[in-house]
Amino acid sequence: MRRQLTIGMPAGSLANPNRGGNLIDLLERAGFHTKGYESGGPSKFTTVDFLYGWDGRPQEFGSQLAIDELDVAIAGDDWIEERRLELKLEYKSDIKLKKILSLHRGGVRIVGIIDSRCSAESIDEHLKKLTSDKKLLVIVSEMPYIALEWTRKALDRIGKLDEFNNFTVQKYKTPPKIESGIVIYETWGKTEAKIKNGGADFGVEITQSGSALRNYGLKIVEEIIQSETSIWINPELLKNSVKKDLLHMFLLNLYGCINAENKVLLLFNAESSKSSEIEEYLQVNNLFGNEPTKASGDRYTEYTIQVAADNPLLPLARIRYELLKIGAQNLDTVPVHSSIPDISVIDI
Asked: What pLDDT was estimated at residue 153?
């Protein structure tokens, strides 16, 4: 049995060390150093022999997971959902994929958008007007099947789904294959311009703040889903005990690095006579778990505590200052690269 996991490595901003969530750095801190990934591949894991890198587009990873071409995919939730819906709506195939770890990176919103000059404030209201005037609805989106599913649900709510049940997904402005129903033009970017210039009745777009949409004179009528970069698998993988164990190892080390972000260790000494005051301060401010980590000597006690460096309610600068006021000495601040509470934090 091959003791190796095939990992879908997403091309694009995540592969660029100067953009996105810097996946390369995250993998390296987790103990999975890559070579070739930053320059477009082929990607190799140089410090472990149980991972195999498969370079690809996250748009394709959902399909690859479904047919076991990949064991694990690093991809946005939106692209996994897009492939799931494509297989469901076009091929009547219901695939089961599982999100098992968020990487806390690449957060975006998938939203429905219309021209701001339209009076409608919801997609239902917009569709009521459109369906009374025309037989063919025109939508534009980089994610046509998410757009289609969203539109069909809205049509169902207003009692128009039977009338507009036919659909076709096509490249932008190719002749519609149907006379009535829904035509979704799959775009390769600049979806906003197509709606602004009258190329479609409405659209579905990927956004963070929505500022670009407002610049084009468009408005959001609904947030469809929120998406982030995550680790996805086909649940069938868990039936393979060898690969399940390797997956657990992979996830635990990634989790440790994510959990350690914005955390530091404070190491300091204090005279033993100050221990009770020091420990009362640590307890009042919840700066340890079950008990403080310490090493006691004849005259001094050495403490090690983990602190969130970005906590606005208890800033790191204040913690250091107040510890020094009550007797801490030789206080060092050390970055934390990985923090794993115990093996149960990953339950697969």
From this structure: 98
| pLDDT digit string, tens, across residues 286-323 | 998 788 899 999 999 999 999 999 999 999 999 999 99
188-211 b/e with 16+ CB inside 10 Å = b?
Answer: eeebbebbbeebbbbbbbbbeebe
DSSP letters of 223-234? EEEEEEEEEEE-
Cα dihedral: 320, 322, 323, 324 (round 10): 80
Task: Specify the amino acid at residue 292.
Answer: P
The dihedral sign for the CA sequence 227, 69, 240, 51: negative
Is residue 1 pLDDT above 70, yes or no? no
pLDDT band at 21 (very low <50, low <70, confident <90, very high): low
Distance CA 243, CA 82 (A): 26
Nearest one of 147, 150, 139, 141 to 186, comparing CA atoms:
141
| Residues sharing a CB contact under 8 Å with residue 341, sequence separation 6 or more, in sequence order | 259
CA–CA separation, 299 and 296 (whole Å): 8
Domains (range + CATH), the chain? 5-97+234-260 (3.40.190.10), 110-220 (3.40.190.10), 263-339 (3.30.70.120)
d(CA 41, CA 278) in angstroms, rounded, equals 52
- pTM of the predicted model as reported, rounded to 2 decimal places: 0.90
Which contacts (CB < 8 Å, 24+ apart) does range 84-88 have? 85/145, 85/146, 85/148, 85/149, 86/145, 87/62, 87/63
